[in-house]
Write a structure and sequence with these properties.
Layout: H1 2-12, H2 15-22, E1 24-26, E2 34-42, E3 48-59, E4 62-68, E5 76-82, E6 90-94, E7 107-111, H3 116-121, H4 134-144
Antiparallel strand pairs: 1-2, 2-3, 3-4, 4-5, 5-6, 6-7
Length: 146
Amino acid sequence: MRVLSLALLLTLAPPSVVSAETGSRTSEFRPGVAVEKIYREQIDDVYFSDWFGRLETFEGPWRLVYFETSDKYVNKGLIQLNCDDPKADIGLTLYGVGDYGNAADRREVTVPYADRRAWADGDYEPLAGETPPFEFFSAALARFCK
């Protein structure tokens, strides 16, 4: 009943109030799905990318988080986090400019604990280019592992 009440309250609130308070918006790639701002990546003095996300599923300590940007360089996909084991591998499913969910556009990357420093330094080849930065991972971990 509490969830239903909250959902009803959010649908009755003006959209600007909901967005301002929760930082959420409708996904640009998944109609009817709400995402919230998780991290702002500062590219240089002028440019930045906002990374949005939502919790898709959870099982025990594992969280599967959908993410997207809507900037010039489109990013979307899933990141798998383990809230209890800081050394667990991080799984990423990347769709880039392809269609979300399309197997032909999917790229799978696993980041072992030993490669996190390289990722954080921007030197991890499998995640070179327009992919989630290490800081997004840290922000998503903080947000969804409360």
